[in-house]
Structures are given as C-alpha cells and as structure tokens.
C-alpha cells in the first residue's frame, strides 16, 4: 500500500505543553480520508506538521514517501482551518500569486473554476462571503496540481448550504484530478458525505482507521442480559459498554459472526462508531484500547 502520510512517534511541544505526542499513523494514498477527533486531539498540529509549517519535537513524518516540507510542498495543496485569503487582494491577484509561487500551477484550471463559481476576478477577497473565500482557497489548492490535498476543517465556519456546496465541489475536483485527500472535520456528516476512509484521533493516538464501508460492516451494538465485558470472546473487541441492573449494551468490533443467541445485534452508524472511539477514556489501560486498522 502506498502512503500519502506516515507518522512515527510524532510529537510537537510548545514550551511545557504537548500539542501532539507519540502519534503513529499511516494514511493510504488514492483515498479521501476523514480525520476526526475531539478538540485538542492534535488534528491541526498533525496537518501543519505534514505541510512543513511546524517542525517535530520528537519522531518523524513523511508525506508522499519523503520527509515533510522542502520539495514535497509543491506536491501538496493545503487549505488551512480559517481558509486564509488576503483581504486586500482581488480574486485575480490571488491567481497571479498562485502562478508565481507554484511551478505546477494550472492557470486554465484556476480561471475555469473561478468562472464556474461566478466569482468576480476584480472583487477583493475581504468582500467575499465565507463560502466564496472557502471556494477561492480550494481553487488555489487544486490549481497547484497537487498529488495530495489537505484540508483542515475548511467548512467549519460556513452555513449548511455553503458547506454542502463546498463539499460537492471538492468531490468533483477529486474525481476530475484523481487527488488523494485528507479532510479534518468535527462534523461526522461531512465525513460520511465526502470520505471513504476514516481515522479517529484521540489524545494524539489513532484509535481506529480503515475503509468506512468495512468499519460499518465490522462494528455492532449488542444488547442482552447483564454481562461483564471481560467475559467476551477474544475475537470481539469491546469498544464501549454500559450496564443497568439487568441489561448490558456493548459496542464491539469483530470480523466473525456473532453466534450467542442471548444478544440482540444491530448495526452502527458512522456517528456511533466515531463517538464510541472518541468516548474512550484517555486513562484506560493501553491494552484495553487497541489501535485498530481495518483494510480490505
């Protein structure tokens, strides 16, 4: 499997505070990857390290098979969390700047997108709506002709309609230009709509990663008579458990059929899976919190 991004023991420290610690991750190329996790999990730090805007304190990170930064920057399109544009520059000025800074710049692609989006080339970015600025930032990222497009919560500040339009436009760009994408988001609905691969990051550690279709096919909710989760078969990984006096509800991951007739078995939604891993206690024993990688 070729890798778009690989981190090994990666950490970033600001003074006495660790923003990212001991992060180990393999992100496959050729996929649209959703990176999700709670605030403070280290998502933005990881993505900024991947484009060379930060340097690691510990460990290492590779992008497209080589150390992050340097020559790899020309192969990466990056849309940061606040979809940055220059307020006093016009749309046309942004395209000219993109052409000067990026050796693989595709001017015809950029101009065609601006025209299709209905953006006035003479309009200053500071006068654009949030959705228009996000589309301009995406245009700059795509027109670089990158191999990997990284988006750090690019639609977090947009209204639902603008968010949907942005994601639809992103998927068209992915299909047309065969991009690998890493999309950080705190909205599971955006990941479900746009991505085919999931990474859940909690406390800097990957809790689960894999093809979304396979994750949904291997995670279940079991409801039945009260039972200690430690008594479950070894091929059934318990992700979370809740109990009443008489009943237990377990969220599990397994590749095998569930044969115990005492259980009522139901499938999970993607939101169920994400919340189950995000809710795992950071103080739980490490052998109780397996890093699961699901690929088929």
Automatic annotation (TrEMBL):
* Domain ABC transporter intervals: 5-228
Q: Which UniProt keywords apply?
A: ATP-binding, Nucleotide-binding, Transport
Q: Any idea which GO molecular function terms this record carries?
A: ATP binding
Give a Pfam family name. Answer: ABC_tran
SMART domains under this entry? AAA (SM00382)
Give the PROSITE patterns listed for this entry: ABC_TRANSPORTER_2
In its UniProt entry, what is this protein called? ABC transporter ATP-binding protein
């Amino acid at each position: 499997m070729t890798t778009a991004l690989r981190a090994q023991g990666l950490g970033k420290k600001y003074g006495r505070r660790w923003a990212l610690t001991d992060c180990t991750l393999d992100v496959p190329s050729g996929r649209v990857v959703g990176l999700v996790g709670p605030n403070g999990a280290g998502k933005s730090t990881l993505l900024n390290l991947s484009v060379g805007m930060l340097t690691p304190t510990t460990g290492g990170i590779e992008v497209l098979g080589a150390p992050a930064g340097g020559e790899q920057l020309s192969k990466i399109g990056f849309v940061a969390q606040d979809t940055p544009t220059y307020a006093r520059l016009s749309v046309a000025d942004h395209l000219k700047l993109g052409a000067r800074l990026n050796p693989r710049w595709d001017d015809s692609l950029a101009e065609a997108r601006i025209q299709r989006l209905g953006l006035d080339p003479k309009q200053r970015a500071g006068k654009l709506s949030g959705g228009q600025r996000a589309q301009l930032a995406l245009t700059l990222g795509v027109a670089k002709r990158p191999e990997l497009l990284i988006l750090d919560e690019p639609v977090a500040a947009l209204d639902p309609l603008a968010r949907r339009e942005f994601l639809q436009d992103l998927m068209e760009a992915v299909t047309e230009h065969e991009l690998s994408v890493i999309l950080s988001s705190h909205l599971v609905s955006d990941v479900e709509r746009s991505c085919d691969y999931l990474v859940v990051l909690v406390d800097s550690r990957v809790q689960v990663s894999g093809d979304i279709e396979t994750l949904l096919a291997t995670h279940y909710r079991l409801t039945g008579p009260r039972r200690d989760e430690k008594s479950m078969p070894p091929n059934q990984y318990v992700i979370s458990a809740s109990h009443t006096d008489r009943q237990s509800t377990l969220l599990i991951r397994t590749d095998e059929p569930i044969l115990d007739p005492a259980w009522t078995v139901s499938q999970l939604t993607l939101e169920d899976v994400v919340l189950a891993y995000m809710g795992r206690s950071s103080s739980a024993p490490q052998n109780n919190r397996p890093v699961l990688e699901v690929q088929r």
